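Sample intake sheet
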Amino acid sequence: MVWNERLFYELVASMATGRRWLDLGCGRGARGSELQGVRRKVREALYVGVEPDWDSLLDNPQPNRVCSIGDSLPFRDGAFDLLTSDMVFEHLENPAGVLAECYRVLNNEGVLVVHTASSLHYILMAGRVLSKLVPRRTYRRMVARFTGREERDIFPTRYRANTARKFAQEARKAGFEGGFVTYLDTPLSTGTRAEQLLVGLLPRPFRGTLLAVYFKRQWRPDPLGVSA
């Protein structure tokens, strides 16, 4: 697991204790040893995983799994305290609709934490060009070989809200009052010295992934010390 993904899960683990947690795009679940270690730290009040791909959901060992798309979640308003999504938003056809649903199902103190690919990352841009030049099956095979992922877990990407500016715009439109988006580097384990130098020279939007943390209601200090 590269450090930016571990940072995401450590952040989630620090926020999930005692919360009702909705995991958007839970896939096949947490199987890596490092991720399982992080997951064991969590003492959430409730965990629910949402995944639109039925085959992936059947292979997920976590309890409380729901097959659903993100822009039509089958939950009541304000049902959750924490909503997370890891490497899902790059695949969404309608990220604005998904963010609106995230806002709806979070309660007033709810927090949204999203980790997703930057559409300007130089390797991803090269991959998008390549995907238009070779057959889909060939492209999936090449991506699987390069990343070590299984072909069945390589889904189409759309990058509709995958710059910091675009994601922030869509989050504000959905109603989120406070938060931030930042870029994280994604160092490759096979990266050469030349590549490391290149990454160091690139503007931040061209490097790695996005980490977004948004609050449904902006925090305001209470001068009387009494919670709202």
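Comment: Residues 3-16 form the longest helix (14 residues). The domain at 3-118+156-187+208-215 is CATH 3.40.50.150 (Rossmann fold).
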